[in-house]
Amino acid sequence: MQIPVRITFRHMDTSAAVESRVRELAEKLTRVTDKILDCHVTIEAPPAHHQKGSPYTVRIDLTGPGGHLTALKGHDSHPEHKDVYVAIRDAFDAIKRQLDHSVQGIRDHSQARAT
After folding, report:
1. What angle do CA 100, 105, 108 make, to 5 degrees?
2. What is the CA 100 to chain-centroid distance, rounded?
3. Confidence at 110, pLDDT banded by 50, 70, 90
4. Which residues neighbour 10 within 8 Å (Cβ) at sequence distance 6 or greater?
5. For the CA atoms of 84, 60, 39, 70, what is the dihedral angle to 10 degrees?
6. Are 82 and 56 in contact (CB under 8 A)?
7. Sorting pLDDT into bands at 50, 70 and 90, what band is 79?
8. How far apart are CA 49 and CA 36, in angstroms?
9. Angle at the Cα of 108 (from 101 to 93), degrees rounded to 5?
10. 89, 88, 90: which is closest to 12 by C-alpha?
11. What pLDDT, on the 0 to 100 scale, is given for residue 81?
């Protein structure tokens, strides 16, 4: 199942390579569940006057089983988030952990009700 992915770029030009990577990582979330309804990814470069040495911020808002999940990476001073691909990877790792936890909670609840 194809996840509906919306990508917003702030303070930066759109990038086909970045967009492709986001879609690739979003599609991998279907390994956890195929019931994802919406995925909105916001990639924000530091404002031009703060660009040198500042991290990218990546926010993922996901709607799926169990409701709405949000992951935000790069908003702190982690030097590795100066690379947009690292910030994207870390945000998707965080949202996947949340999604795993949400899906497992739903499974546990369903199994408890069945017994």
Report:
1. 125
2. 13
3. low
4. 42, 43, 44, 45
5. 170
6. yes
7. confident
8. 37
9. 10
10. 88
11. 80
C-alpha pair distances (Å), 47 with each of 12, 51, 107, 113: 9, 6, 43, 51
Distance CA 28, CA 33 (A): 10
Residues in the chain: 115
pTM of the model as a whole: 0.86
Backbone angles phi, psi at 109, to 5 degrees: -65, -40
pLDDT digit string (tens) for 25-77?
A: 999 999 999 999 999 999 999 876 555 667 899 999 999 877 999 999 986 66
Q: What percent of the chain has pLDDT over 90?
A: 67
> What's the DSSP call for residue 60?
E
